[in-house]
Amino acid sequence: MTPDYTADNVRSGAGPSWSEGLFHIHSRFSSDGKLSLAELKAECLARGLQFMVVTDHAEDMVPAELQRYVSQCRALTDGDFLAVPGLEFRVPGNEDIHLLVAGWDSSPGNGPACEILAGAMSVRNGSLVVLAHPFKAKSCWPPHIEQALDGVEIWNASCDSRYLPDHRAVRAYLRFKSRNPGLVGIGGLDLHDRSGFRGVRVRVKGRCSVTPDLIKRIRAGEFETAGPCLKVRSSPEYGNMALALLSAGRAALIAADRVLSAARGGKKTR
Question: Of 34, 75, 140, 205, which shows the fewest CB atoms inside 10 Å?
Answer without folding.
Answer: 140
